[in-house]
Amino acid sequence: MANGKSLLLGLMVGGAISAAATLLTTPSSGKDLRGRVKDQGFEWKDMIANLKQDGLRLKEQLTETSKEGAALIKELTQEMKKSVEEWKQTVEPHQENIHQYLEQIETSLKDLEEKVKSQQA
């Protein structure tokens, strides 16, 4: 917001300076000059109103985009949680089988070691 205010202030100051320079350097009649200054004032007023409308539209778009982003992140998080749960459900039965298989291998190795020791003695 500070940048927007700075821009607006810069435009106003620049407009005032250019209007003053025009007043001081113009060889026109007073009536003609007042008409041009009045027209320029209306143009500046319209430009400021347009800038304000554009700023409000930008604010609305940013708000909408942030809401959509938050909803998307929430949905993505839920999908990730669901995927992790499904993975756990898929892997857990296999973990038990692998654990049992490793225990069987360990037991077989112990039996084999005992047989080798008994044959050597």
From TrEMBL:
<dbReference type="InterPro" id="IPR024623">
    <property type="entry name" value="YtxH"/>
</dbReference>
<keyword id="KW-0175">Coiled coil</keyword>
<feature type="coiled-coil region">
    <location>
        <begin position="48"/>
        <end position="115"/>
    </location>
</feature>
<dbReference type="InterPro" id="IPR052928">
    <property type="entry name" value="Desiccation-related_membrane"/>
</dbReference>
<feature type="signal peptide">
    <location>
        <begin position="1"/>
        <end position="21"/>
    </location>
</feature>
<protein>
    <submittedName>
        <fullName>YtxH domain-containing protein</fullName>
    </submittedName>
</protein>
<keyword id="KW-0732">Signal</keyword>
<dbReference type="Pfam" id="PF12732">
    <property type="entry name" value="YtxH"/>
</dbReference>
